[in-house]
Amino acid sequence: MSVSDPQWLSADERSAWLALTGLLVRLPGALDNQLERDAGLSFFEYMVLAMLAEQQDQTLRMSALAELTNGSLSRLSHVVRRLESQGLVRRETCQEDRRATNAILTAGGRDRVDAAAPGHVQHARELVVDAVAPEDLATFGRVAWQILDRLGGWQRT
Amino acid sequence: MSVSDPQWLSADERSAWLALTGLLVRLPGALDNQLERDAGLSFFEYMVLAMLAEQQDQTLRMSALAELTNGSLSRLSHVVRRLESQGLVRRETCQEDRRATNAILTAGGRDRVDAAAPGHVQHARELVVDAVAPEDLATFGRVAWQILDRLGGWQRT
Question: Of A46, A125, B5, B136, which is most buried with the most CB atoms under 10 A?
């Protein structure tokens, strides 16, 4: 199909597309607002801390952390520097690969994300998880993973 | 349920939630990149022009345009000012309600969005519409509208 002969969306396709793009425009602000208000963190900062907290040694290579948070390495570096300045994360050279950098959650960072998690999970339930029938949520998640696969340059882990 | 006694997500719920938040982090940049590269427009700018182009008189009240693009009125005002400075949109007082402002697509704005639309639709097909089985896309869209309804303060039109 050439761009000069576009295949326009059907009414059903258009509805799904507009709903998805509506989420892209509206949901990030809602997530940021709840976390900023209740925990002083942006959603992306929360995700960085939460992914580190799930590791047994509270440590991830920056490249792995970028994948888990869907962020580019440059965006992640910026956010980790800010978290580091607040004492929530520290960075050090990876001992196994000295070209790589590890991000490590500090005790203070662990306290912060532990305090933030219940409110964030409750918000996720209110907006999405408890608002949707389980079988619909499963389909929704499966489609979202398909789209992430299409976006490429990133591996599900 | 109190925040002090959080109901954590199940594995399935967590997977769907992480996929959704992955889309929030990754998809906007992909949409912006294609449109910036091929049409010199952000995704939000494109949506503003496209929603005006769908009106018979190429005109919408700013409040209606904010709803259709999911943007806040302040964000929309900022973007419309930028589009106005490029000659793609103009604003004038609504004749039926002089407290309201209309946004009107100019002929140049119409040309710009007409030129951008085929590439954007093709990109939407590649990333989402053609990547997903029709029945799954329908469920996905229905769930996304449910979430938008939960976000409130905005009416589907």
Answer: A46
